[in-house]
Design goal:
alpha+beta
Length: about 325
């Protein structure tokens, strides 16, 4: 795992609880790490990537269950995700819940990247593992897939069989166990892992909606994220804002307001890094355009609309500036 990656101790506590470990068992779970049982029960304790890898490896051995990732993920109540879990569970609907996760999932799950795409009649959640797909990586992916399904069903207030789950890896030895935990259609061997569901479900009212609790949770998440931002370059911080609001063509002034600074100050910050706002905006829009063009269901017009362009010709001109060729020429070169 990446050395600078950290995990919340909450999830290791959940592993210990799911395994019903006594004091001796906790010692076995933590064997080979720098942690003691007391560390697991400290508030806001973070665990290094190497220690977390060892804990998961030990947990798989102690469970004797190759499907332990699916088992754990299916029992991860949204409250296990801390403040972000509060935002997920109190959002007005699934759309707002997804938007909260898109903005702040890195506070809880640095091991995976989530991309959300509107594919017309269906909405996709793409899960891209940021660690090797070994036994521990498979555990993390299985736990994330099962947990995402749980969160969707919590917000909708019912079991959801309309999901289509495409798994970006071959069937594991315990593939037959997947039907015990996944409620929709699922299949293995795809180029990436994604969960899709009918787009019409996005606006279904959440029976646990609480606007005040949601606003407070989002504010707290923003504060937690802000504490991490000083380590980032300003160009990276601006890119993050643009990634969190796909489909909206932000102006320099609007982005500066997010950081509570003037547009002139943001210009100076970016200039100190040898960059400018237009370059950062172009790079992010170019990245998003290429991501959408991966889907054969997208056309030049639909990608333009998805990115926030009201004029397709303006998107074509922008894409030629980014890629040195028109979208049609770029697509044709990809299909040769």
């Amino acid at each position: 795992m990446t050395g600078d990656m950290h995990f919340q101790a909450t999830y290791s506590r959940m592993i210990a609880r799911e395994l019903q470990l006594d004091t001796s068992g906790l010692g076995e779970l933590l064997a080979g790490t720098s942690l003691t049982p007391g560390h697991l029960f400290q508030l806001d304790q973070q665990i290094s990537a190497q220690d977390q890898y060892t804990i998961i490896h030990n947990g798989l051995r102690l469970s004797g269950n190759p499907a332990f990732g699916l088992q754990l993920g299916s029992r991860l109540h949204v409250s296990a995700h801390g403040t972000l879990g509060i935002a997920i569970s109190t959002a007005a609907n699934l759309r707002e819940s997804f938007q909260a996760v898109a903005r702040f999932h890195n506070l809880r799950a640095q091991f995976i990247r989530l991309d959300y795409r509107d594919e017309g009649s269906r909405y996709e959640v793409n899960l891209r593992l940021q660690v090797p797909m070994d036994a521990v990586g498979l555990f993390l992916m299985e736990a994330m897939v099962a947990s995402t399904q749980w969160n969707i069903e919590f917000v909708l207030g019912r079991r959801v069989a309309e999901t289509i789950i495409e798994l970006g890896y071959p069937p594991p030895d315990h593939a037959a166990r997947y039907a015990e935990y996944l409620h929709g259609q699922f299949s293995f061997g795809h180029d990436s892992t994604r969960i899709s569901l009918p787009a019409a479900l996005l606006d279904t009212p959440n029976p646990f909606r609480d606007d005040e609790a949601f606003a407070q949770a989002m504010l707290q998440c923003e504060r937690m994220a802000a504490a991490l931002r000083p380590k980032e370059r300003w160009s990276e911080r601006v890119s993050t804002v643009l990634q969190q609001h796909p489909g909206q063509l932000w102006t320099l002034t609007e982005v500066a307001a997010v950081f509570n600074i003037s547009a002139r100050s943001l210009i100076r910050h970016l200039q100190s890094e040898g960059s400018c706002y237009q370059a950062v905006l172009d790079a992010e829009l170019h990245r998003q355009a290429l991501l959408h063009f991966e889907s054969p269901r997208h056309t030049v017009a639909s990608v333009a609309a998805t990115l926030g362009y009201q004029d397709v010709s303006a998107f074509r001109r922008a894409f030629k500036r980014w890629a040195g060729q028109t979208p049609q020429a770029w697509l044709a070169s990809r299909r040769r």
